[in-house]
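Final report, closing paragraph on structural work. Over the funding period we assembled a curated collection of sequence-structure pairs, and we close with a single example.
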Amino acid sequence: MVGRSGPFRRGLVAGLVATTVVSLCMLLKQALGFMPHVNLVMDLAYALGYRDAASGWTAHYLIGVLAWGALFPPFDRNLRFPHWINGVYFASIIWLGVMLVVMPAAGQGLFGSHLGLGTPTVTLFLHWIYGAVLGETYSLLQPSQRRMLRHWWQAHRLHRV
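Its predicted structure, as stored:
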């Protein structure tokens, strides 16, 4: 189903997977107490004029899936690098937008300067995770890759008794 629908749907599915993976990384970061003051979901909510986490998570998923997932296929098509590297480049551009627009709109200053010096690095790393997963998932959803994976799976799965 995904293979016949073209790059747009593959981009949306890849956006969903990448947004979920980076969301889990963000939750893990918070649970471990690593830079707990850097909370991109709440910063996004504040930038949009809301004060609750539900609004931030909703916006985070809508943007990660619908906006970036839809814009990645044309970006990827114009670059000749492996898809995951194209995803990292794409995510770096998104990160720059977050640092220049979202963080100041949330009251955190350019590049999150009110949150501390580690903010740009942590947020860039999270965006790179998103981009790498976005690009690699998009690549794996290509029809030729799906056939190869199906063939590999059939050759290497455990045989039932």
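The chain has a mean pLDDT of 89. Residues 63 and 82 are 24 Å apart (CA to CA). We thank the funder for supporting this effort.
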